[in-house]
Amino acid sequence: MTTYKRIAAEAAEKLGRPMSAQAVGNAVAHNPISILIPCHRVVGTDGGLTGYAGGLDKKIWLLEHEGVDTGMFFRPGEKRNRSLSLSR
User: Fold this and answer.
1) CATH code for 2-72?
2) Catalytic site residue 73?
3) Domain coordinates of the chain in residue numbers?
4) Per the residue annotation, which of 19, 21, 39, 84 is the catalytic one?
């Protein structure tokens, strides 16, 4: 797992110029090979799940399928620490 902010910092260091987390989010959203480059593993710094081309339910399913405890994340507009399990 990683965050948009962490990817932006690494890209900025390698490129030698500033990079915003929003720019990283835009690039992740246009990932044409998400099976090979798993963009569902990128989350907000505060634990918020942001958009995913396949939908947040699929993002949560993929994370749970990989054994990630999704209880630490929250959907946009929801309070933190709310269970994200698809079984609710």
Assistant:
1) 1.10.10.10
2) no
3) 2-72
4) 39
